[in-house]
């Protein structure tokens, strides 16, 4: 008798993960993902901090301070308009050639753009050429960040062990908090040790030039990692998109639905962060006339609290699911807006700091830690980079980029009172809650077996 044939082994699925990556490799992946987003967000939010404190004076000087601030915030918003371009460009590349090489390029582009901002001449030196060059470099920053976020999240989630994908998906989200803390912290330090004239003359430039050092460290770590197991499996099985990933997103009804609902779900998050992390600085130093260093330190402290609590949110996702965690957190944001601005209005730096610690440090962390895993679960591996980038970056135009402009305009319309602006923020939170609730369970299902990780079940 001939021996019985060995049982055939089922072919690996596109999202199949290895039984377990070595702990050392997982630590390097987490570090590469976290360092990348930290550097990218540091660079991006340096601009937002400088927009309200420096650029309105050096690049957009006008007799009306409000006009100068709004012009400065307009260039801030341009970065968000450029982010979808970067998302589509690098999403296409990331779904075609891989996550690793794409992320190395985005980090380099961001670092060079940020350093060049630190070398720009001012309006007084070269006239209109100064804001024009600033605008170009802001666009380059936006393009770079547009390709960074989704890739960094995928690097962590697609390597994440079974049952811990929520926690791993939260690690790159910490980069937002650390980047903001570094940006405001460096500005606070420079503002404290330098005179106003020295800070406006050269001090702010130091913060932008430091980016080159951070990028060098980040690239060194990022280039040590391998491509993600999910993408290697797709490439091995030759299941890369036959057409452009964006075209496949448009063709698939489920993907189209995920894109629309995902963009609406992100509205509240984008409006929240750019209120507490950007607009609040200008509001506190301008309208409330609080000490600039105290305000920057309050934002820095709140960002550090957020960095600590984001992994807690990720761990909660592994127990309760991304949709539920995100939905509850967004509801907490909607109801916290009015009390926060009431606390701001008491006029003290300590009251401002307490309000930020609650809204940015605690509430924002509660839903931001779930966001990466939530969006990653909406798309198949071959188009996941493009899908996540499109949702996050396209929504950034209305959810994030124009928030400081809207808040400044509503503050002026309300004759200095913040209640119209608060109503707008609460509305964005409610819209995001409805959109998140309409995501069906099948859209968010992450199977617990060895295969098909992060692929939505058929609707």
Major sheet attributes: none
Relative strand content: under 5%
Distance between the termini: 49 Å
Oligomer: single chain
- Binned, the helix content reads over 70%
Got a strand count? Answer: 0
Shape: globular
Class derived from helix and strand content: mainly alpha
What does the average pLDDT come to? 82
The helix tally amounts to 18
Topology as H/E string?
Answer: HHHHHHHHHHHHHHHHHH
Low-confidence stretches: 1-20, 441-459
Please characterize this protein's 3D structure.
The protein is an all-alpha fold. 79% of the residues lie in helices and 0% in strands. It has helices at 23-58, 65-97, 99-117, 123-126, 129-157, 165-193, 196-209, 211-222, 229-236, 245-251, 253-287, 292-320, 322-344, 349-376, 381-401, 403-413, 419-437, 441-444. α2 (65-97) runs antiparallel to α3.
Features:
459 residues; mainly alpha; globular; disordered N terminus; disordered C terminus
